[in-house]
Each structure stands twice: as C-alpha cells, then as structure tokens.
Amino acid sequence: MTRIEEKFKKLGIDNAPGQESLQDSAILDLRGEKLEGEFVDFSHGDVDAHPPIPGSLDRFIKSYEDGGKQAYSEYRGHKYIRENVAKKITKFTGVEINPNKNIIITPGTQGALFLAMSSLIAADDKVAILEPDYFDNRKLAEFLEADIYPIQLDYLNAPSGSSGIDFDALEAAFKDGVRVFLFTNPGNPTGAVYSKKELEKIAALAKKYNVTLLADELYSRQIFDNRKYYHMINEDVDFDKLITIMGPSKTESMSGFRLGIAYGSEKIIDRMEKLQAIVSLRAPGYNQAMLELWFDEPKGWLEERIKVHQDIRDDLVKKFRKVEGVKIRPTEGGSYIFPKLPKLDINIGDFVKVLRVHANVIVTVGTEFGPQFDDCIRLNFSQDPKKASDAVDRIIEMIERYRAK
Amino acid sequence: MTRIEEKFKKLGIDNAPGQESLQDSAILDLRGEKLEGEFVDFSHGDVDAHPPIPGSLDRFIKSYEDGGKQAYSEYRGHKYIRENVAKKITKFTGVEINPNKNIIITPGTQGALFLAMSSLIAADDKVAILEPDYFDNRKLAEFLEADIYPIQLDYLNAPSGSSGIDFDALEAAFKDGVRVFLFTNPGNPTGAVYSKKELEKIAALAKKYNVTLLADELYSRQIFDNRKYYHMINEDVDFDKLITIMGPSKTESMSGFRLGIAYGSEKIIDRMEKLQAIVSLRAPGYNQAMLELWFDEPKGWLEERIKVHQDIRDDLVKKFRKVEGVKIRPTEGGSYIFPKLPKLDINIGDFVKVLRVHANVIVTVGTEFGPQFDDCIRLNFSQDPKKASDAVDRIIEMIERYRAK
Question: What InterPro entries does its record include (chains A, B) (predicted)?
Fold first, then answer.
C-alpha cells in the first residue's frame, strides 16, 4: 500500500454525523413494530427549531449588494470584519486581540481547526488528544501522520464543573515529547466544562514542557446553570503558543454560512493564512459579513437561547436517568449529551442503524469518539423540544427491546 | 528547523493576488509624477463590472428561507444539487457523470484543487506541473512535500490553439516515476487553449506510464474567437485516473459564494469527500444552491459575457503590442494576459509595487508562476473596459519610465 493509500484508509466518514445515508442497513435485526413519530436528526442541531441570529438574511443581502468589495478579501478575511470581531473577542475574554495579527476568519470552525492543526503538525510529530473528544481531532491528527497520545477523560465520575482529565497521563505525554495538545471546552461529546484549576494545570504543564495549546471553545457562549466559564487565554500561557477556535455555527445556528475564527498566536495565524491560500482562499466573501451580527444579537436573545436549551437538556437527561443501567452526565455547556447505555445484545453500530430505520431517530455512534465508547451514543439536543422528547422516548423503548438478558 | 517549519517556509503569499496590502513599499524608486486615474485591480476580476449570474440573490434568499434542510448537506454536497450539476456537466462534456459517484461540490475551485491534490499526493511522491501555470499548483505540491518536476510551456512561440508543452520533458518525467500530472486548460496565466493533439498525447502518455491526471478547466466556458474547446475527459483516458475541476467563480463572477466542483474518478472523489470532512465539512449549505443557476443562465448571457471579454482582450493586447520589446500572446480562453516586458532597470517585484503606489494599478508579479518569469506581469482583464484600457496606458507609461537604457 502506498503512503497516500494508508493515509486515506484511516479516514472513515460513513459513521460521521450527517453521513448516515451511507450506512448499509441490509441485514439488521429489527424487533417489533416500527416506532412512528416525527423524525429527529440528533447528529446536528435543528436550525429551523432554533433559527439563525435575527437579521441574518438582511445582512447577507446588503453584503451581496455591496458587490466586488465584499466578494473578495484577504485570505485571513475582511479587515473591517476582523476589526469588528477582534473588538468583541477582546471584550469576551478580557485579552487584547489585534485585528491585524491575532485573528483569522475561516470556512467554519472546522476550517479553523484544520488550518491550526496543519500549521502545527508534520508527520511523526507527537500530539495529545482526549478521549472522548470531538471525533475529527483524532482524524486530523491521523491524516497529518502524527504520533497520537490519547488521554482519557473520566467525565462520568469527575465532579460537575471539571473535565476529569487524566493529568498523570497528560504530563507523561508532554514529558515524552508531545508538541501540541488539542482539547474542546465545553467538551464534545461530554458537555463538561473545565474547572479553573484544570486550565491552570494545563497552562503550567504546557509552559513547563513547551507545548502549544489548541483550545476549541466553540460552545463557550452556551453555558448552563449560570456557571462561570474560563477561557484558556486567561491562564498563564505563552501567547505565542496558544490558538483558540470559535464560531457562530452552533449556539447561533449560522452553520449554513460556514464561518469560524481562530485567535491567538500571530505566528500560528500567519501560517494558517498561508495555508488558507492553498486550501480554499478565504471564507466566502459575502458570508463573512454575517460575523458582524455575532455577539451583537438583540438584547436577551442569547439568554433565551441558553434557557431553552437548558430546559431541553433537563427533560432529556431526566428521561435517560430513569432507564436502568444508563449513565449520563448533565451538560454544563454546549448541546450534547453522551449517554452510556446498558449492555445490549446487538453492537452499537447496528443499534444506531436500528434507531434510524426503525425509530426515525438519528444519533451519532459513540465509537466515533474513541473505540472504547462502544456503549455510548451522542445526541445534539438543539432540537424542537417536543420532537426531541418524543424521540428520546423512542430511543428508550429501543434500549428495552435490545437490552441484553 | 523542524519539518513543519520547513513546510511553511516555502509557502509565501505576500506577492499573491489580493494580498498586495502586505507588500512593503518603503524604499521604492518613484520616477516622475504619480499617474492618476481610476484604480484597477488586475489581480482578480471585477464582479461589479461583470456581475454574477442574474437571479443569484433571489436564489440565495430562497435557499436561506428553506432553512435547515439547506443549511446542512452531505460533505460532498446536496444530492439535489449534485444531480442538477451532473446533468449539466454530462451535457457539457458528452460524458455521463453519475451524481452519486462522480462529482463533489467544494468551497471554490481552490477547494477542489486542494482536495484533489491532497487525495493523490503524499510526501516524496513525484508530481509534474507546468511553468508557467496557476501559481498555487506549485505551492500545493510543495506543501504536500512532493518531488516536483516542472515542465516548460513554450507558450510565446507555440501556434495559436496549442499550449506549447514540452512533451519530451513530460515523457521523461513520467518515465522517471511521476504519478500525478496537473495542468490548467485554458492556461493560467498563458490564456492558451490546448490542441486536440496535445490532449491526445497527454492521454497516451498517462496511459503508458500509469499517471493520474488533474485537469483544471476552470475557464472552459469562456473561449474566444469561436474556437473549439476540448475536454480532457473526452480523450482516451482511464476514467479512474482523471479528475477535472471547474466552478462558477470566474466567467460567472460567483467567487463571493466560494463554489467549485470536481468530477471524474469515483475513487478520488471518495477520498476528496473524506478529506473535506476534516478540512471544512462542506461548501456552505446555503451557497450550494447557487450552482442551480450555473449553465442555466438566461439565453444569450454567456455569449454576451464572452464577447465583452474578447473586446477587452483585443483592446489591451493591441496596446501592449505597440510597445517596443513587449511580447504578448492573445488570450484564447479565460481572462488573463501575461505580457513579457522589455528589460527594465528595476526588478519586477519593485516594478509591480511602483504600479500600485504610483499608477493606481495592481497586477500580479510573474515570478508567482515560476522564478524565470521575472520579466512578466499577469493581468486579469475581467474589468470595466474603459478603466482597464486607461490602466494599461498607465502601465505602458511606467514601462517607458523604467525601461533599461
């Protein structure tokens, strides 16, 4: 097998969120009647139930009508948009972000993640990732032919307001030569928010071992229970060795515009721009203008969005908790729950397919987040509350039908 | 220097089109009065002078209003859009394109190029590119740590309707183990269209030496002088070893939406989708709908666009030809001219900066297309005809001011 063939062999997407139509369901063991009910796709949020920031369409129309000056931008994005966003991130974090040096606009947060990782990692470089964590982190590291150090999160037993990161393993990895550590806060799929202490410890270890940090804080505006959220950039870190990524695709439902940002190290941002120049040139020129609306939503809009999601979380978590053998951690930030199911008598991949064809529900299989999560499913609960609630009833009914005797 | 540092050291963008504001102009030798006149940016087309396909904004509004079902798509793009575009490409080329297997929608044609190259090339793989050809071809190959075989185009002496490719060098490269050959037709920056014979010969060599072809046919709808255009896919090639890329960013002025496609080999398209999943997930969901308008422009719209551009070409080529020592090939397809200038007494990089600060004109420096083109400049003449004409007068005046004695 050639090297390029090897690289692609590892890159599977058939079980990734949104790709479910690729799954083969020819030989499923379907038990009982099909559970009817309105289809719910928990693989991503429902932007009809929770629409984009008010005024989005009007802003786009203006952007299009502005013509050529809006259609093209520097690879790192329109200067006036960078200035606008940098000001808001400066306010959000309390750390001065220079619009010309410390920020880049990307095609979605995924774009930011790809550019950042590719700017930091060459083949055989040592990288630490978490398990479970956003499934593309591993895929990216694999594609870049990195030497991966997976660090475990004991998220089910860690106290609320902490991630459960295994610091002994993390320090051992750093000691062993890891150059980049990538983590998601709030956690995806765990929904855990990192404690101040955990972030301090990450910062101290990174400093001690000269490790670059890549903090994915995509969901940092959607924090529940009036909990305090701590940004990595507020810790005692080397500013040149930290990149934070974020974007309006989730909480703000702007995913259809494909916009993200990365902020932090000038050196890394410079590299990311160079790479952007050969990857996709720029985030779509017209779309970039939508970032003006971000952090400038109507008064009370964000609070209401958080409240609605917190209520959905409460409902779904309560339902799962009533099921014998299910373990679930209530989400502290973001829109994910990651229930661990009781022992079933079919494998998790087939169970997820059964849910799709026999219960009108799409969920993401736990093994996307690490091979050991073969008894977990992930749900993005940014859905219509009633439909989501009914769909979870159907999932629970299916758990009973397939529960191992 | 670490491997990742080495990779980025080669990736320069300061002289790339659209990045001119990064250029340092502190120590320029400015001669005579500044030439006033309306600013023209020849680094890319002017979408105000040549607006996007009629109905674009209305189609976007509908797309946005369609909500969640339009915001998200499979990584390779919305099925209904792939079906729509596949039908049109089938008609355009006469070759059946299966919408589920042979096509992917990407964030711009640059996105298609990146995904295709990254799907075919690992470190140390041998790749043939042309000189001069689209400047990112080399950058991409370098970033992927390929072993690059540059093949020369004798575009100034080749007969009209042929590229002037050096087939001896190409065959030698293939013989030496080149696995991928990438070329742009119509040529960028040459404006040359490949002859049927040339494409036949490329096909035969590719077959003989088992080389995968990547044909960038971005400008294949904008062919001048009623010339016949030949697609690579119509030659006797192994369908599994050919990818063609295209998109509506240029002729159709849709660049602000960032949309491209690649069609061809199922195996390569599958890889591209896997990669898209970690690079940017998908072309923006709302934007994808714009491809419905492509190839379905109002009757006569494309013909008029071609005519207008042909007239601009005629005007600018005529002007440059009057200048002693300038060599220029009239564009056969696309919107580029690549005049070779007489000997100047400043270097080409400084001359381009002089044009910007002292003549209100931006052009792209020839060395972006190969180090040997240090006496060439590239102009994208998709501009307002009068402004472009005046701007070329200013360029010519500057050539005289800096002509070597």
Answer: Aminotransferase_I/II_large, AspAT/PAT-like, PyrdxlP-dep_Trfase, PyrdxlP-dep_Trfase_major, PyrdxlP-dep_Trfase_small
